[in-house]
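Input record (one chain):
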Amino acid sequence: MDRAEFEDTVREALDDLPEEFARYLDNVQVVIEDEPSPALLRSLGMNPRRETLFGLYQGVPLHLRGGAFGGALPDKISIFYRPIVRAFTSPERIRRQVRRTVIHEIAHFFGLDDSAIRKLGY
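The corresponding structure, as predicted from the sequence alone:
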């Protein structure tokens, strides 16, 4: 899958979100990046030679925001193109993984940890 089709797939995954969740994403920037940097992986306790990421949420989850929270830079969700297309070769499997990754990272925005997200199937 080329980069343009991948970007369309990410947009479709975002467009398919139920409105009751999507309305909270006004101050969340979703970006598509080629690869997570080795420095980023190391900062997360990962070995860049053996591990990678499909996506990453960076920000302050909703449940940790107090009443005075405001005026902050947008939270950021990165979806990593190359790791996904390397791991999933068919367009259908890539689409399923992109959807799964987008939902997984949005779940972090809503305050769920990896264990809770896995229990939900993402």
